[in-house]
Specification:
Helix content: 25-40%
Structural class: alpha+beta
Number of helices: 16
Number of strands: 20
Length: 441
């Protein structure tokens, strides 16, 4: 109870022993607001780890908030994957000089510029990345899910936005996230940033970068939208509604990055049996969906047993990774033949209501980035894990298994709404050829 966050949240946790309080963050505005509010309230510690941290308006603004926390004595630890921060070396080096701010880099490239030249030198290691995403403050609140840090994830980009999903959590599960962060922070693959970057840091240049981000002409309008978000209104009114339910952290052993994870420690190993508990329905929302032969067989078997199995992934024009979409394409026909329903997100949803359902604001294009699985309107998984071989075997991943009927129903209902004008429904014609239909076709 030594911090304001502790005083606000720990009594509720004590009233729900063994459970965790969950608040879904679907709109990008709310997801950004949650991180900024937590960072602003931090009094003791901030532990953040991300695969991608972009050097743009929201990325720099959140770094500025972390610096402000460090300036008032908060211990800030930032762990980033080296593949997702190619433009941030100067800013990270400057932050790393602050007394209570430490930056580590996961699985660094052998060469800093251009980093891609490291691939032929050390491909087996470099091909494995830390895809985890968590943001934990004062040991009492954490955010876990599919979002990285950047405008495209927080409804800030004016051209394309990601429809994504994560959750704010407090209570029993937070200690597990903190321990998991420590395991990654101290892993053999995590290197102090100052061992990799030799140029002198420049705090003046860092402040100039922050000022430039604030000078963006759209910053004021975005800030007003953030301050008016439902989450911020609830926090100010002290009416934040949390769903107190059993939550289990699933996370890969960080030794997976070296190909040395002990048998049985992979996230996918634990997730498979949980999804196998489904008796009525399985809903899969995965930006990068490549089920492989075994995954296809499992989903097809479930559909043939009478379960309703639905997949939502990106369409060809909405995806940002064409090779993944090409790999997914060969599994559509066998899944459809078994009775699995497949929906593909349109790049341009037709109405504002559809955009709002996807958590989007003010851009012309949409792309799915969420990774959510729901079963029986009873439980969901949300995290960094895509339904593809890279997440299973190569990248380090994490997420929550949340036994919440209300949240599972909300995900299923969102898929119901999205399966209208926001998506194409993929089907088979009488000759077995693929078809794409929507409400306006």
């Amino acid at each position: 109870l030594g911090t304001a966050l502790g005083q606000a949240l720990l009594p509720q946790a004590a009233a729900h022993p063994g459970l965790s309080g969950i608040r879904p963050l679907w709109p990008g505005i709310e997801a950004y607001a949650a991180r900024m509010v937590l960072a602003h309230a931090a009094e003791q510690s901030i532990d953040a780890r991300y695969y991608i941290w972009q050097r743009d308006s929201t990325g720099l603004s959140l770094l500025q908030e972390l610096k402000a926390a460090s300036d008032r004595g908060v211990r800030v630890r930032l762990l980033v994957d080296d593949n997702g921060t190619p433009d941030l070396d100067a800013e990270l080096a400057a932050l790393n000089t602050l007394p209570s701010f430490e930056v580590r880099v996961f699985n660094p490239f052998s060469l800093r510029r251009p980093r891609a030249l490291s691939y032929p030198l050390d491909f087996p290691r470099i091909n494995r990345r830390m895809h985890n995403k968590s943001f934990t403050v004062d040991g009492v609140a954490t955010i876990v899910g599919g979002r990285n840090i950047g405008d495209i994830y927080f409804a800030r980009d004016t051209e394309v936005q990601y429809s994504d999903f994560d959750v704010l959590a407090t209570g029993a599960v937070v200690a597990g996230v903190a321990d998991d962060f420590d395991a990654y922070w101290n892993a053999a693959s995590a290197y102090p940033h100052d061992l990799l970057v030799t140029p002198p840091s420049d705090l003046a240049a860092l402040d100039a970068a922050f000022a430039q981000a604030q000078a963006d002409p759209d910053t004021e309008a975005y800030a007003l939208a953030v301050s008016d978000s439902r989450l911020v209104r609830e926090l100010l009114a002290k009416t934040l509604d949390l769903d107190w339910v059993p939550v289990t952290l699933l996370s890969d052993d960080p030794r997976k990055a070296l190909g040395e994870a002990p048998a049985g420690t992979l996230l996918a190993t634990a997730l498979g049996p949980l999804l196998g508990q489904a008796r009525q329905s399985v809903d899969v929302i995965s930006a990068y969906f490549v089920p492989g032969r075994e995954g296809t067989e499992r989903l097809a078997f479930a559909a043939r047993q009478g379960l309703r199995v639905r997949i939502l992934t990106n369409s060809l024009d909405a995806t940002d990774v064409l090779p993944v979409h090409a790999a997914y394409g060969k599994y559509r026909q066998p899944l459809l033949s078994a009775g699995v329903e497949i929906y593909e997100l349109r790049r341009t949803p037709r109405t504002e209501a559809e955009r709002e359902a996807l958590g989007l604001l003010g851009s012309s294009g949409a792309s799915l980035h969420a990774k959510v699985f729901a079963i029986d309107r009873r439980a969901i998984f949300v995290g960094s894990f895509n339904f593809d071989p890279r997440s299973i075997w190569l990248n380090c991943e994490m997420g929550f298994w949340i036994e919440s009927p209300s949240l599972a129903a909300a995900i299923t209902d969102a898929l119901d709404r999205g399966a209208g004008g926001a998506t194409w429904e993929v089907g088979l014609d009488p000759d077995g050829a693929l078809t794409w239909t929507g409400k306006d076709t």
